[in-house]
Amino acid sequence: MVRAYVVAALAAIAALLGVTWYITSGPDDQFAQCRGSAIGTGVSSIGGPFEGVDETGKPVTDADIITKPTLLYFGYTFCPDVCPLDNARNAEALDLLQASGYDAQLAFYSIDPQRDTPEQLADFTSYLHDDMIGITGTPEQLKAASRAYKTYYKVEEDGDPEYYLVDHSTFTYLVLPEYGFLEFFKRDETPQSMADRVSCFLDAAK
């Protein structure tokens, strides 16, 4: 069970890396100078439409959420360490971007719709950043969004039914209204490095 679970997680990550490598290897990438490596974008393969409910309880689609450059993260509010740290890093990167005059935001799509109510998400996002939007939805909506962004998540089946953990991938995605998905950032990216790379993408998109 555990081995199959780990293999599935690695396969999801490998698929993401493999697809992005293939797509960004072409000569016509206007954002090539912004990428940290050959791994990067591909609106035809990563990203796309999603649905859910925002932190006010209103049904939304990706068009309602991605109205400006957005750093999108898939996680859950009961996450004990990874999600708070990653999103605090994202919030710091956003502060740096906004201080430099860029109009951007954060979005957090919950992979734990059972516990992450709109109210729970509102508390979480308001604590992290004023320009952060929380999204939840049905299990089917989450599955579709996760598939679009090639993320991985799995509830720990042997955990406490109330205080269970959810294993998940930890990429942060840069998404622009006009271009869709452009880049992802791994956990070892610093706030300054992320802000520098995002600003490069935004400048190149003008």
Helix content: 25-40%
* Average of per-residue pLDDT values: 87
Structurally, how many domains make up the residues? 1
Radius of gyration: 16 Å
Low-confidence stretches: 1-11, 17-25, 39-43
**Could you give the order of the helices and strands?**
HEEHEHEHEHEEEEH
Distance between the termini: 48 Å
Which CATH class? Alpha Beta
CATH architecture: 3-Layer(aba) Sandwich
Inertia-based shape: globular
Number of helices: 6
Strands of the largest sheet, in order across it? 2-1-5-4-3-8-9
> According to CATH, what is the topology?
Glutaredoxin
- The name of the CATH superfamily reads Glutaredoxin
Beta strand %:
15-25%
Main structural class = alpha+beta
Main beta sheet, described?
Answer: 7 strands, mixed
Task: Say how many strands there are.
Answer: 9
